[in-house]
C-alpha cells in the first residue's frame, strides 16, 4: 500500500469554508497520488481556534474550548472525505474537553466505509500537564483494517517502550507529532525508530511545521514526515523507508508491504519482538559494584 504522511502547516483561517477547502485539497492530493492511508499530525487541529478570532486563539484555555467545540464538525468533514476518496485518514489531534471538564489530546481515525474511532494520548508532556491541564485519556487500541493491523502513539507516547509493546500486535504504528524544536523532532523520531526496531514493524511519523504567531501553544513547529522500519531483511539497512525535508510543508510518500513485517517477525536476522519476554527477570534493579 501507499502511505502519505504530512508535514502540516497550520493557518489563520478566515472562516470554516477555508478550512474545509484546505483539508480537501490535502486529502485530494494524497489520494490522487495513490495513497490509501493519510496521516496528519498532533495538534494540527489547533488552527480551528482561529475561527473564533485572534484573541481566543492566543489564550491557552480559550483556544482549547474553541477547538473542542469544532471537533464534531471536523469529524463530519473527515468522514465525508474518507468515504469520497476511499482512504483511511488519521485526523490531526485536538484538545477535546471531556464530561469531567478536563481536556484530552484526541486523534480520530476514519475509514473509507464510514467507520470512525478515537485515540487519546496516554502520557502528557510538561507543557500539556503544567500549562494546559491536559490529561491522559482512554486506553490504547489496535485497529483491524483491510490494510493491516494499525496502532497509534501520539507524539510523546512514542518515547515509552511499554506503550509500544502494548501495541505489538500492530504491523504499523502511526505517530502524529507536534514539536517546537529540532531536539523535540529528534526525540520523537528516535522513539519511533526504536519502536520499529523492538516491535519489528513499520512506524509512520507526521509533524506540524512552521510558525503560528496567533498561538501560544503551537507558535513554533519543527518536523518532517517519515516512515521507519526495522533494519532487517526486506527493509532498508538504515531503518528509514522515507523521510521528508525538514520543515518543508507537504506529503511524504512511501510504498510498503506489511507482509514484509510478518516475514521479518517470523525469520528476521534478529527477533527482537519474539525475544522481548526474555528481559523478564533480567530487568530487576542491578547490584552496585564498587570498582576502583
TrEMBL record:
Q: Which residues form a coiled coil?
A: none
Q: From which organism does this entry originate?
A: Sagittula salina
Pinpoint the CN hydrolase domain residues.
Answer: 1-258
Is the keyword Ion transport assigned to this protein?
A: no
A Pfam family assignment? CN_hydrolase
SUPFAM superfamilies, sorted = Carbon-nitrogen hydrolase
Q: State the UniProt keywords alphabetically.
A: Hydrolase
Q: Determine the domain of life of the protein's source.
A: Bacteria
Q: Name one GO molecular function term.
A: hydrolase activity
Note the Gene3D superfamilies from the entry.
Answer: Carbon-nitrogen hydrolase (3.60.110.10)
Q: Which InterPro entries match?
A: C-N_Hydrolase, C-N_Hydrolase_sf
* Protein name per Swiss-Prot or TrEMBL: Carbon-nitrogen hydrolase family protein
Extract the CDD domains matched here: nitrilase_Rim1_like
Amino acid at each position: 500500500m501507499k502511505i502519505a504522511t504530512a508535514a502540516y502547516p497550520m493557518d489563520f483561517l478566515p472562516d470554516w469554508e477555508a478550512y474545509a477547502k484546505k483539508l480537501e485539497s490535502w486529502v485530494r492530493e494524497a489520494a490522487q497520488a495513490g495513497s490509501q492511508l493519510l496521516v496528519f499530525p498532533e495538534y494540527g487541529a489547533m488552527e480551528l481556534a482561529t475561527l473564533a478570532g485572534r484573541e481566543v486563539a492566543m489564550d491557552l484555555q480559550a483556544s482549547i474550548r474553541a477547538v473542542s467545540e469544532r471537533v464534531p464538525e471536523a469529524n463530519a468533514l473527515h468522514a465525508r472525505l474518507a468515504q469520497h476518496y476511499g482512504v483511511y485518514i488519521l485526523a490531526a489531534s485536538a484538545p477535546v474537553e471531556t464530561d469531567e471538564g478536563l481536556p484530552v489530546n484526541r486523534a480520530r481515525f476514519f475509514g473509507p466505509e464510514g467507520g470512525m474511532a478515537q485515540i487519546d494520548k496516554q502520557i502528557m508532556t510538561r507543557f500539556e500537564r503544567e500549562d494546559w491541564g491536559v490529561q491522559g485519556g482512554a486506553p490504547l487500541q489496535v485497529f483491524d483494517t483491510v490494510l493491516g493491523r494499525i496502532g497509534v502513539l501520539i507524539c510523546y507516547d512514542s518515547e515509552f517502550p511499554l506503550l509500544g509493546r502494548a501495541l505489538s500486535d500492530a504491523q504499523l504504528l502511526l505517530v502524529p507529532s507536534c514539536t517546537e524544536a529540532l531536539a523535540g523532532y529528534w526525540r520523537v523520531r528516535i522513539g519511533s525508530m526504536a519502536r520499529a526496531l523492538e516491535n519489528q514493524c513499520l512506524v509512520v511519523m507526521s509533524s506540524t511545521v512552521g510558525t503560528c504567531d496567533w498561538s501560544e501553544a503551537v507558535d513554533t513547529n519543527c518536523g518532517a514526515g517519515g516512515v521507519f522500519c526495522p533494519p532487517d531483511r526486506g527493509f532498508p539497512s538504515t531503518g528509514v523507508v522515507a523521510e521528508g525535508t525538514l520543515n518543508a510543508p507537504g506529503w511524504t510518500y512511501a510504498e510498503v508491504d506489511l507482509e514484509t513485517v510478518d516475514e521479518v517477525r517470523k525469520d528476521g536476522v534478529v527477533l527482537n519482538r519474539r525475544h522481548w519476554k526474555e528481559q523478564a527477570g533480567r530487568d530487576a534493579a542491578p547490584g552496585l559494584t564498587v570498582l576502583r
